[in-house]
């Protein structure tokens, strides 16, 4: 088993199950031309997020970490015409690229792109008494994932689905003494998912064109 094999399998799955898409393909190209890091979800992962949102019949989605808007497009396409996706991005350059990609995909009316610190944006949403979200996708800086999780729970309702990306980190999460803040943040995030009284959660390892990683998924239960 090696990276070449994983990438080839991902390509087969994408070619067989996902199919070409002008807006998404253009977003990938534009993101690369703009020098954004190539850390978008893979096409088959994007469609997985899309299907989860559709299965859950999500009308309000929160995304923490927009990058160039690739996953945003997948998620927004799962919304009904009266749905809303709020996506948070720290980097103004990334946000500008994402806004153009979202507009090109015809989704600007559904997407509210907010630029600035995600922790500040989340606090503002809570202070504004934002309606709870049906699905929350956490895919920003990993050291802050424990804090993002706490805000996600505050912005949720019973039944809200919370998804955390990149939780395996090539297996580095096994090291409790890691000096990598992304690893320690991810370990704390997973521990809180497992210990929080309002959450039922699990995590899965994945391999593919993006390497060896995984995601966590949780559902919010009733308050005690």
UniProtKB/TrEMBL annotation:
One of its GO terms (biological process) is methylation. The keyword S-adenosyl-L-methionine applies. The keyword S-adenosyl-L-methionine applies. Coiled coil: none annotated. Its EC number is 2.1.1.-. It comes from the Bacteria. Keywords: Methyltransferase, S-adenosyl-L-methionine, Transferase. InterPro entries: Cation-dep_OMT, SAM-dependent_MTases_sf, SAM_O-MeTrfase. Gene3D superfamilies: Vaccinia Virus protein VP39. GO terms for molecular function: O-methyltransferase activity; S-adenosylmethionine-dependent methyltransferase activity. It is an enzyme of class 2 (transferase). This is O-methyltransferase.
């Amino acid at each position: 088993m090696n990276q070449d094999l994983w990438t080839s399998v991902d390509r087969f799955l994408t070619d067989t199950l996902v199919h070409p898409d002008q807006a998404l393909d253009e977003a990938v190209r534009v993101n690369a031309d703009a020098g954004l890091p190539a850390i978008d979800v893979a096409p088959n992962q994007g469609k997985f997020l899309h299907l989860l949102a559709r299965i859950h019949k999500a009308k309000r989605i929160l995304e923490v970490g927009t990058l160039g808007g690739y996953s945003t497009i997948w998620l927004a396409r799962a919304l009904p015409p009266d749905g809303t996706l709020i996506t948070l991005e720290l980097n103004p350059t990334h946000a500008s690229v994402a806004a153009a990609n979202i507009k090109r995909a015809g989704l600007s009316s559904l997407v509210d792109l907010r630029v600035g610190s995600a922790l500040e944006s989340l606090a503002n949403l809570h202070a504004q008494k934002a309606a709870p979200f049906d699905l929350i996708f956490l895919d920003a800086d990993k050291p802050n994932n424990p804090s993002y999780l706490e805000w996600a729970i505050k912005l949720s309702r019973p039944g809200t689905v919370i998804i955390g990306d990149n939780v395996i980190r090539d297996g580095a999460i096994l090291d409790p003494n890691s000096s990598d803040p992304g690893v320690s943040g991810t370990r704390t995030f997973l521990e809180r998912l497992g210990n929080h009284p309002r959450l039922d959660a699990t995590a899965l390892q994945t391999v593919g064109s993006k390497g060896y990683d995984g995601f966590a998924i949780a559902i919010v239960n009733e308050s005690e």
